[in-house]
Structures are given as structure tokens and as C-alpha cells.
Amino acid sequence: MSTLREYLDDYKNITIDLINNLYCDNIDNLDKSMKKRQDILDSIQKLDYSKKEINLIINEIQLFHIEKRLKDVMAEKKEKLRIQMEKNSLSRNANNSYNKNLYGKARVFSKKI
Fold first, then answer.
1. Which residues contact 5 (CB under 8 A, 6 or more apart)?
2. Element (H or E) spanning 104, and its range?
3. Does this model's pTM top 0.90?
4. Mean pLDDT score of the chain, rounded to an integer?
């Protein structure tokens, strides 16, 4: 059976991989990594350790700093995506308005002369 430190080290490594995947825009790998992290958290919850012991190990491996970095990177990517979506929406609206004005007043006759 794995120890708490091994679980937390695996959790830390997966978190670092998540950060790297976010930087490289490897969106496909995020779901698997998040699932692995959740599995590790579930396994830790089944172990019989006190909060004090868990916090001591977390502080030793500086997991809080890595978690904060992941949160910051995710917020940064989220903001970039939001801005890109707004640009796409404005572009789509402008294109629709242009096409509506250009072809909306056109008169097309279907009668043979």
C-alpha cells in the first residue's frame, strides 16, 4: 500500500504536468490528468492520517505553491479564451451586418425575358 507521501508526490507531479499542458495548449490531456488527481484525492481520503500530518507533508513538498500556480495559469488561460470569444462574436456580428446590408436590398428577378 502506498504511503501518504507517495500519493502527495504523485499528486504534485500530475499538477505540474497540468501546468505544462496548459502552457503548451494540450487541452486533450487535461481530462485524464484531472481524473488522476481526483483518484489520488479519493485514495488519500481513505487513508488514516490526521490533518496535521497531511499538512506537514504538503508544506514540505510545497504543494500549496504549485496549486496556486495552477490556479493562476488556469485563470490566465480562461481570460485569454474569453477575450478570443468576444472577438469572434464581434467579428461574426460585423459579418452578419455587412451581409444583411449588402444582400438585403438586392432585387433579384426570376422572370424570364
1. 57, 61
2. helix 63-104
3. no
4. 86
Model confidence over 81-93: pLDDT tens digits?
999 999 998 888 8
For residue range 26-45, what is the model confidence (pLDDT) as tens digits?
888 888 999 999 999 999 99
Q: Computed from CA positions of residues 57, 62, 68, 71, in that sequence, does the dihedral angle turn out positive or negative?
A: negative
CA angle, 84 then 32 then 36, to 5°:
130
Determine phi and psi for 50, rounding to 5 degrees: -85, 160
**SS3 at position 61:** coil
Q: What is the rounded end-to-end Cα distance, in angstroms, of the chain?
A: 88
Q: With cut-offs at 50, 70 and 90, classify the pLDDT of residue 76.
A: very high
**What is the grid cell recorded at 76?**
490566465
Q: Which three cell numbers stand for residue 92?
A: 461574426
Residue 44: φ, ψ to 5°: -65, -40
| DSSP-derived 3-state class of residue 110 | coil
